Amino acid sequence: MADYTYWQNALRGEFGAVSDGYPEPGFYRKRTGKAAGYVPVAIWEDGGKIVALVDSKEADANEVWTYCCPHPITEAQYHARIETGRWHDEDDAVTSSLAHRTDTNNPPTDEADILRGQIEAASAGVTEYAQINDDPTAAKAQSLRSRLLELSGQADKLREKQKKPHLEAGKEIDAKFQPLVKGAKAAADAIRDALGAHETRKAREAERIRREQEEARIKAEREAVKTRAEAELAGKPVAAPEPAPMPPAPAPEPVTAIRGSYGRAASVKVVKVATVKDQDAAYTFLKSHKELIELIATLSQRAVNAGYAVPGVEVTEERKVA
Predict the structure, then answer these.
(1) Is the C-alpha dihedral spanning 129, 134, 136, 138 positive or negative?
(2) In terms of Cα–Cα distance, which of 94, 81, 84, 83 is closest to 28?
């Protein structure tokens, strides 16, 4: 009696060791080409010999075994495919996509055009699965998803293949010029930073002088008021006010551009630099900001993924399809 253990385990997703020349009895399916549909395969023992049918035609079990062993199906699914010509999980858009290359008298020859047509044919079926309410529909939806991912992979490989010569040429050009670009830019940036520090020091010194002048003016006015008040209180004649001292030279106007004898001028602008001194106060002010909310959500998810319980965060379980 034939041993169907391998096939029965494979139906549960438990695949055993596979060897050429040792086909295992059961029901399977295999592709007729790299990007083609499946045909049914039956393998069984007959008179002490392992025999096979592929799409209802006799075949060498040894030749088909390694192609069909990853794709076990139930006996009912096998017979339904034989009787109806359709698979239980077959999607019409997948079938249309697989047949796209040969369904015209003038098929495209450009690989990108071929893939475009196949992807368009497959994508036409996506709306059928906007909502999935039963397992048979889920199986068909997964068939279409698999086909779309397969086409995506093929398109990406083709993209990489066609881009590679240009990429290599681009790398050679980068290797030649990028050190020059980066070296000159780094040297220029060092001068930029020194110029910025110089202008910052000048601005701060000008502000210091302005404050000192303002404080001296206020102090002189207060002393003059005090002196007049004391004279009036003592019955002494109030001295005529002294002429106002010459105002100090005004602070230089802020520089808005630095011009050298060569090349373009550098613009000088005022920027405000924030340094957080009280994180709690800053958080209170910013806690409703969209970017901070998104950042907290991202960090919370990262902590939950790492196994932490985050205060204030509710954890629910969902099923994600990989």
Answers:
(1) positive
(2) 81
